[in-house]
Amino acid sequence: MTTLKARLKDDLTTAMKARDEIVSSTLRLTLTAVAKEEVAGTAARELSDDEVLKVIAKEAKKRREAAEAFDKGGRAESAARELAEGEILDAYLPKQLSDDELATIVAGAVEEAKAAGAEGPRAMGAVMKIVNPKVAGLADGGRVAAAVKRLLAG
Question: Packing angle between helix 49-72 and helix 76-90, nearest 10 degrees?
Fold first, then answer.
């Protein structure tokens, strides 16, 4: 079985042979981020596929945020490139939950938190603790928090 990191390297080689500049540079930056994560801490280590997924998700999120910033700054070309890079990275991530799927999971967590005695806006932390493990890697943290706030505000 090939690891996710090996798949990234293979895809980088393919992109370089095809002279696909945007895919090459995106994967190169992502592999650099993975390598950086591997040497962070006290001892160098090989990242698991789950850890590599987290790095890819973080890189994809950076692209979305940069695209927004470029968009606000009136730099459409740069924003388009960031979005394109984000889409390349999204292909490696598990399919994101739809808004309906996320709302269903959050609603269940809110009920669970209420049963445990946490209610109203103060229950945010309790609900997030229940929701996060269920949606890890399947929905952006900002989306999750917004859905929880919406339901708690009632």
Answer: 160
Q: How confident is the model at residue 40 (pLDDT cuts 50, 70, 90)?
A: confident
Cα separation, 116 vs 37, whole angstroms:
37
Separation of alpha carbons 99 and 58, rounded Å: 20
Compute the CA torsion angle 75, 77, 82, 87 (nearest 10 deg).
140
Picking from 111, 135, 132, 133, the residue whose alpha carbon sits closest to that of residue 123 is 111
- 131 — pLDDT class (breaks 50, 70, 90): confident
How is residue 90 written in tokens? 């999204």
What average pLDDT does range 57-66 have in this prediction? 91
pTM score: 0.74
